[in-house]
Amino acid sequence: MAEVRMPKMGDGMEEGTIIAWLKKEGETVAKGEAIAEIETDKARVPLESYEEGVLTKILVQPGETVPIGTVVAIVGEPTAQKIDSPRSNGTATSSSTEESKNLLSSAQAPANASTPFSQSAVTTGAKPEERVRASGLARSIAKQYGIDLHQIKGTGPHGRIVERDVRAFLQSQTTPTTSAPAPVVERAPEPSPTMVPGQEVQPSRMRRAIAERTRKSKQNIPHFYVTMVIEMDRARALLQELNADASEGNKITVNDLIIKACAIALSRVPEVNASWTDNNTIVRHEAIHIGIAVGIEEGLIVPVVRDCQAKTLRQISAEAKQLIAKARSGQLKPEEYSGSTFSISNLGMMGVDEFTAIINPPDAAILAVGGIFREPVVVGDTDEIAIRARMKVTLSADHRILDGVVAARFLQELKRVLEAPLSLLS
Fold this sequence. Notes:
Blueprint: E1 2-5, E2 15-21, E3 28-29, E4 34-39, E5 44-48, E6 53-58, E7 65-67, E8 71-76, H1 94-108, H2 136-145, H3 163-174, H4 205-220, E9 223-231, H5 233-242, H6 254-268, E10 274-276, E11 282-284, E12 290-292, E13 294-296, E14 299-301, E15 304-305, H7 313-328, E16 342-346, E17 365-379, E18 384-398, H8 404-419
Parallel strand pairs: 12-16, 16-17
Antiparallel strand pairs: 1-8, 2-4, 2-7, 3-6, 4-5, 6-8, 9-18, 10-11, 12-15, 13-14, 17-18
Helix pairs in contact: 2-3, 6-7, 6-8
């Protein structure tokens, strides 16, 4: 018998949702065969069987969210009998029923006792009907205030406990009660709040993950911002020359130039290619792994182009295109959207002139890229007016790691590379 557990698909993943079972109870499965589809904070991925055999029991139903390490199914020997569920109305003998209960009890226990699972969500010996369905944010708030989720009635889909349920419970518990009415104090009436009608929408797992990650970033990281204008005439001319004979799917983009230029600038100002650790130390990375923010229907994901310091412009361009395509089709693997050392967010193609981005922890900085626009500028020593193609970039930096001077040096190097772009071909 083999237990199939909710896998940890990447750093920061605490729970997963069963989207659909691809196999039914009683069907044979091969080792490595996909038996279910699960949803993480970042993507939908197949859940594979660890062993060959028969899917004897499904323990977590579609739509349920459980912590990593939770047993979601049992795969037994091909000749094994189907395991009776405690919910079954069958007429199994007392001994076999007790054995099934013990098996299910052990299946509901976490894979490792040291893993910080919510005790209200997964408890040793818990039956399936006792498992609490709750969102990650609801669990986090409940843990913060020491609330047992079993006491709360969920109002989300399928009775799932969501943030508003926990906060309503918390408010009901903290409302003071008195044996006698408080003395009436005369004061001016306050205007009643106006309720604006609207439809309440449950955010997706990815949207909740984005909300939590960006909230923590802004709360924990002291952001500061440095903006610089870069002339892009020569870079655009180089781009036109490089793409003259290239097919549509193989053309180099402005974003590819920026990724390569950032890799060069990071190698010249290595202080920016760094991270702040939980031990309050700074790690400076030798490898340059650049995350590129990609907008998708569910939200935002940041695939990572690895070892940019060792790749040519065309290699970076080809890899970035593959990652973006996989991001939009939901086929990214966890290792393809984790481990960045620097990030880029480009909204230039949306007509945005400039903006600021939120740092993607644990990176020291993120570059926000605006669109290329043409405007008259003063050039040369004779104060002549000329039309130039220009682009604004803003570096959001972690002040624990970097100071303004270092951030400015990085942008100077980036400007130098893009305004004299032949170095991008090295």
